[in-house]
Amino acid sequence: MENRKMSNFVFGIIAIILGCSLFKKFDFINLTFEQPALAVVYIVVFIFSIYFLIKNSKNKSEK
Hints:
The protein is mainly alpha-helical and about 60 residues long. The chain is built from two helices and two strands, in the order αββα. A two-stranded antiparallel sheet has the order 1-2.
């Protein structure tokens, strides 16, 4: 039980950091990223962390 709380915290921190960095790296005038290859890696890990947060919250609500 305690391990799930810790993983939720870690994935939450990862999602916040990557979300902020993606927002900062995005050029709203040209609608592009400064470094597209790095942005793809950030987006994949961001989606992965959000997926695990949602998955863990659904498991928690079912119990």
